[in-house]
Design goal:
Pfam families: DUF3035 (PF11233). 36% of the residues lie in helices and 0% in strands. It is mainly alpha-helical.
Amino acid sequence: MRLPRSIFAVTLAFAAAGCSNIGLRHLEAPGPGPDEFAVMPVKPLTQPQDYGFLPAPSPGGANLTDPNPKADAVVALGGNAAALTPGNAIPSSDSALVSASSRYGVTANTRQVVDTEDAEFRRRQGRLTQLRLFKVDRYSQVYRRQALDASKQTQAARRAGIETPSAPPADE
């Protein structure tokens, strides 16, 4: 009498575990160590040209050595960091780029549309993608047909006469 109950209990536990939807990614931190991505390096300290004309301290304000990754990326790509402040219009030097990138229209709810389409795609993949007995990352298994093979794309570009940079061997 105890054996059928235990089999029923184990079957019920597996059924309940299979109903949970934890997503395709099952990633865990390797341990309780520090998060190396939480630390941002600061800019080097510089000495002012004249100590008599220092700006007044502003509590809670920005420091010259504070990191500003968005502005740094814009400057590194040849843009103007002043254009990032709210209320500034698009600079005239970027108007051609903005009009070319929005020539087919700009959808305001792109993220919601992609999220809905992806949820429908995962639903069509079947319920078996959610059943796990072990901690497995199923993302690459589900999306393998939609992934590009870098070596095949490089070879196709080379056959078409497009110059491509060197790439590591395909077996590495």
